Amino acid sequence: MAAPDLHTFTLGNGLRVVLAPDTTSPVVGVSVHYDVGFRSEPEGRTGFAHLFEHLMFQGSESLEKLAHFRHVQSSGGTFNGSTHPDYTDYFEVLPSAALERALFLEADRMRAPRLTSENLRNQIDVVKEEIRLNVLNRPYGGFPWIYLPPVLYKTFPNAHNGYGDFTDLEQASLEDCAAFFDTYYAPGNAVLTVAGDFTVDQARELVEKHFGDVPARVTPQRPSFAEPRPQGEQRGEHLDPHAPLPAFAVGYRMPDPVGELDGYLAHLVLAGVLSDGDGSRLQQRLVHREALVTDVNAGAGLFGPFEARDPDTFSVTAMHSPDVSIDRVLGALDEEMERLATTPPTDQELAKVTARWVASLHKEHDRVVSRTLALGSFQLLFGDPALIYQLPERIAGVTPADVAGAAKLLRSDSRAVLQVVPAGGNQ
Amino acid sequence: VTTFRTAEEIGHTSAGPRPLPPLGEQRAATGLSTVDTTLSNGLQVIVVRQPAVPMVELRVRIPFASTDPMHPARAEVLASTLLSGTTRRDRVGVDTDLALVGGEMDAAVDPERLSIAGTALASGLDTLLDVLADVLTSASYADDEVRREQERLVERIAMAKSQPSVIARQALQKHRYGDHPATREMPEAEDVAKVTAAEVRDLHRAAILPRGSVLVVVGDVSLDAVVPQLEKALSGWTGDGQAAELPSLPEVSGGDLLFVPRPGAVQSQLRLTAEAIKRTDPRYPALQLANLVFGGFFSSRLVENVREDKGYTYHARSHIEFTPDGATLLIDTDTASDVTASALLEIRYELGKIFLTPPSETEVDTVRQYAIGQLLTATASQAGLASQLVALATQGLGMDWLLAHPARLQAVTAEEIASAARDFFAPVRWTGVIIGDPAQFPALSVLGGVTKQ
């Protein structure tokens, strides 16, 4: 995949900038990635990084409450933000005539967000509703991303619930918000990405105009979240009042995505060999041949690959009939892993995974929003947005022996197994 | 000890607030070349060359309605096993051939249509079409595949039926359309268990018909080459008669909301509905913009009220839902249990208000720009454009309509929007359902216009 026209530079205040001009469609994407996610939130303040993301939409020095949304939408654009383990992103996609507006809006809240008690209280309520909607009031809500980490990890940053406990959310104060912003939202801790229909000179000038005078601040030392791999198989249980069927998630540790990218990619290909499509190992055996599960999925990263630094999680999730015991399914999973570890997959199995990856990277590039966000997160996590365009070649370079090696590393004596137990009937 | 600035200090700079920059010049989308034609088997094909990435997107819509009460179960089994093997490929063969060209294909069914969506690297279009033609003409529905899929479906249906959003949707459909086939969006598990492979094969033969169906192809394709390619690949797909459209739906008329108890629920689902108009109606652009002002996007009156001001919900919206020959308005929100009645009060307030206080000039400008901009961004990707086109084709519209729509939105006057708001949002036109904990009913009954199931 040929790398598109990419331009990266750093402003005097430390803000890293990625420009990716592409005039195919008259639209632009603008995103800001801040190098802080829910792994960095303090103990007693679970869910704070996400709550703070909501507050960043509530106005800034030049923008009243609600103005951000109105300005983006009255320019014909859409916006959103999302909180991840290691970063928080904010983005707009708009007709290209609105490029300067989007830069203005992002710069204004990077410079001087309007943090008020009233907005904090209102957004605590909104976030609680978000959690009720996505977690508490639906079957398998939060599965596995909230319930698996505390079984696999021991330290607070890796193990805690990134959506937050209601008690913690309710205790969030305006002082917490100010300290969090001052610590983590410095321009030197952020990446600005602009992708789409513009010229480099024009964008560079506008970026300098709007972000150039955001004062530099000290950028925080990034902590290591490393912790030892689990000893033995750790088991946990989650009672789900809405779930009609038992389910489980198996979590394994995997190579450092940044420091050991080739090892990480071998795990990614392994995930494809295991569960991508009807011809994959686990679909064939668990779903179709033996009908032990209704669904099975293997994947790198609890939110998708390339989305977190070390430590990252390889997971296998499955939903099964109550008539089938979890140990029977785990036994079959272990046999398949063992089989792959001793007999590497065929070239054709790898060719399938590689072709689907190439296709999905093209599709991601075709959507301005996903292209913008991917460039930003690769700059932030890997220090290299062009790496995205080398992935097809790197993934194609993964050999059958590499995949067997990855399967060998996913050991049943160093993993977490979280069971979801239906606990409330079918209401 | 590290000290931080206060929130007050953070929110101000010495330069003070800055003015919002104006919008620049908007470049129009570059012309996309397109073909809209009918193959010899009667299938309508819409092809758009959009070569931004070397991929191709494919969407098929086959009208697939029936009044037979067993149809939803058979149709669901059919859609779930359509790709499970043909005379030339078994299940793994289908997946392997698609995977080797970076491809995927899915089938889904609802009361209105059978939908097939596919994608592949552009260099794999031949394979993608070959697999499509193969399943359309010789899907085998092997007994054991059908049996296993039935078992999985029974479990999946149980799972889906525990979702509050599904419970709410079923209750709404029943409340507004009674026993009409449109209400059977999900089959009953016991019906699925009864379906035989022979019935599925019969249904395939009788109902998967090219005439009345449409195929959309968007991507890095050559228009000259692709029509003959489609003709060649799909010429074996034939059949007598016309694919079956959904019978007309009865008009939704206003009335009491139905309260459906869900003991122990921590949230309530509010789903309100009223009759609307199709895209082909001359008043449609005005209604589209009136709906945006009401609840159709984040900066709408409804969202700013119930989410941003009151904090009752994370999600609230109104939108227009289209069927082949009609349309309805829907309002939906999920709120904390203890504010169910308060949320209903605010929705009713906004319904009355859009009539008493019609959209302001600023609101009109905002929604107009938003609607025009959304058309640009939503159709900027191959997948977005393909999905948009297949949705329009349901109502007999194509690329021409899409290209002319910005001008239509531009031409709508504030008076026309106010009039659409008055005609379609008037509170007496609405009905709907509320799913929630029974403890919420007393407060709702005090408000009135809510009946318990």
Overview of the molecule:
The complex is a heterodimer of chains A (427) and B (453). Chain A contains 16 helices and eleven strands. Chain A is of the alpha+beta class and 427 residues long. In chain A, helix 10 crosses helix 16 (400-409), helix 11 (281-289) packs antiparallel against helix 12 (326-342) and helix 13 runs antiparallel to helix 15 (387-396). Chain B contains 17 helices and twelve strands. In chain B, a hairpin with a 5-residue loop joins strand 1 (33-38) and strand 2. Classes of the chains: A alpha+beta (427), B alpha+beta (453). At the A-B interface, helix 2, strand 5, helix 3, helix 4 and helix 8 of A face helix 1, helix 3, strand 5, helix 5 and helix 11 of B.
The pLDDT mean of chain B sits at: 95
* Strand and helix order of chain A: EEEHHEEHHHHHHEHEEHHEEHHHHHE
First and last CA, distance of chain A: 49 Å
Strand content of chain A: 15-25%
Give the C-alpha Rg of chain A: 22 Å
Summarize the structure.
The complex is a heterodimer of chains A (427) and B (453). With 427 residues, chain A is of the alpha+beta class.
Throw out a few tags for this protein.
heterodimer, A: alpha+beta, five-stranded mixed sheet, 16 helices, globular, B: alpha+beta, six-stranded mixed sheet
Chart the SSEs and their pairings:
The complex is a heterodimer of chains A (427) and B (453).
Chain A: E1 7-10, E2 16-21, E3 27-34, H1 48-55, H2 67-74, E4 78-83, E5 88-95, H3 99-111, H4 117-136, H5 149-152, H6 156-159, H7 166-171, H8 174-184, E6 190-196, H9 200-211, E7 232-240, E8 247-254, H10 261-275, H11 281-289, E9 293-300, E10 312-320, H12 326-342, H13 347-366, H14 368-382, H15 387-396, H16 400-409, E11 414-422
Helix pairs in contact in A: 1-4, 3-9, 10-16, 11-12, 12-16, 13-15
Chain B: H1 7-10, E1 33-38, E2 44-49, E3 55-63, H2 71-81, H3 91-100, E4 104-109, E5 113-121, H4 125-138, H5 143-160, H6 164-177, H7 189-194, H8 197-207, E6 214-219, H9 223-234, E7 257-261, E8 267-275, H10 284-296, H11 301-309, E9 313-323, E10 326-336, H12 340-356, H13 361-378, H14 382-394, H15 399-411, H16 414-425, E11 431-436, H17 441-447, E12 450-452
Parallel strand pairs in B: 2-6, 7-11, 7-12
Antiparallel strand pairs in B: 1-2, 3-5, 3-6, 4-5, 8-10, 8-11, 9-10
Helix pairs in contact in B: 2-5, 2-8, 4-9, 10-13, 10-16, 11-12, 12-16, 12-17, 13-15
